[in-house]
Amino acid sequence: MKRVKMSAIFKSGRHLIFPLLALAASFASPVQASNQASNQAGGWCVGALEMLANKGLSTPAMAQHLLALQSVPVIEENPDRLVFVSYRAARGGDGSQARPLQQLQVALNNARPGDKIVVQPGNYRPVVMRTSGTPSAPIIIAAQTDGAERAVIDGTGRETRGLIEIRGASHITVSGFRLQNAARDGIFVEGTDEGERDIRILNNDIDTTGNSAIYVGGIVMRYVTKVDEYRLFDVLIQGNRMTNTNFPKGVNEAISLGGGVDGFVIRNNYIFDTRQYGIDAKAGAINGSITDNVMHGIDRHGIYIDSGSRTVANIDVRRNAVFGVQNGIVLARESGRDPLHPNLDRIQVVDNLVFDSNGFGIMVYRHKDDAGIGKFSNITIAENCICGVKRDAVRLGGIGDFAQDVKVERNIILSSGGDVWNKIGAEVQDNGVLQPALNCPS
């Protein structure tokens, strides 16, 4: 298993971009992605198709096979101090292993840079983190497991914004919790005017939320950031399991990220049997990647890239498996304001597997609420495997007046209602049944 050290190694403009964007195979610049598409036609998705086809696997079994293809980087931890929390502890503990604290919120209130807060199995109340670590000494909030026993935060009867909230804090890791029955979000993160950074959300199990499982906003997304204002930098969302989000009438996604976020990696997550959408990068999300995620049983779109009222740019969508959804991967815009700034630019959708869709495989379109302003530019849809889609494998429509440099090439299309429906003048070439021996999963 590859070990990745979290050290900053390159810059984009004024800001450090998350180190894993440079180190992980999940990220490539637009030029690199184009070169990879040219040289590695149908790499990962072809292997995934070959593994799944003609095996008669159930949906959960297919998901487990796809998850087994992943190699998840290990994130190094070097804490200066361990602080223990146990719901069984007596009051008056000092946080040592012999005398743990009883309440998780007390541990967070007294945390200092370099702490690893070790949360032992048991039931805990929702918490809010407002204290920052430092680049060299982050604060880690880590749930322990003991066999089947886990640290659980249950939101039943509680009207908090999140079961775990990170508000105005930097250099924070949250890992290993079971979060359930949230009135709103499972994990809620919000930046500040000063710009918070380095948030890691790792290996949590989130079940039943009224809104998102994981909500990451530079600003809460019912508001609009100033143009080119970014309030949250360097976010990693990795290895989380999410189900039954936005229940019963939530309006976000299992993972919602936007509102002024610069630098993010969303990878190796498993999302299933949930309402609304799977993953959405929107409204001022730039310089990021969405890779190696597995999702199925999604009411609407699996992956959604939506500029909303602010530009979304330089995002790599790669090696995701999306199935049992309405539409697989969708690029759109929902904006009726600020004509110069709601743009989609430099979006790469490469080497993904989309199958068993009731609608479209990959779609680029104008949302019904969009005012037709701004632009769609430098979009590449290449080397994807799309099969068993009831309508068009790739559909491009409604944006012909403001689309430029859109390419659809070398996508493998099998057993779908249509191939490429192109009403925007995109450059379309070499799509179809490129490898006749391949079959859709069944």
What are the SSEs and their pairings?
Elements: E1 3-4, E2 11-12, E3 15-16, H1 19-23, H2 30-39, H3 43-52, H4 59-68, E4 74-75, E5 81-85, H5 104-109, E6 115-119, E7 122-124, E8 127-129, E9 139-143, E10 145-146, E11 149-154, E12 162-167, E13 172-175, E14 178-182, E15 185-190, E16 196-202, E17 205-209, E18 214-217, E19 232-238, E20 241-243, E21 253-258, E22 261-267, E23 270-274, E24 277-282, E25 285-291, E26 294-298, E27 301-306, E28 312-318, E29 321-325, E30 327-332, E31 344-350, E32 353-357, E33 362-365, E34 376-382, E35 385-389, E36 392-397, E37 403-409, E38 412-414, E39 418-422, E40 427-429
Parallel strand pairs: 1-4, 5-6, 6-9, 7-11, 8-12, 9-13, 11-14, 12-15, 13-16, 14-17, 15-18, 16-19, 17-20, 18-21, 19-22, 20-23, 21-24, 22-25, 23-26, 24-27, 25-28, 26-29, 27-30, 28-31, 29-32, 30-33, 31-34, 32-35, 33-36, 34-37, 35-38, 36-39, 37-40
Antiparallel strand pairs: 2-3, 10-11
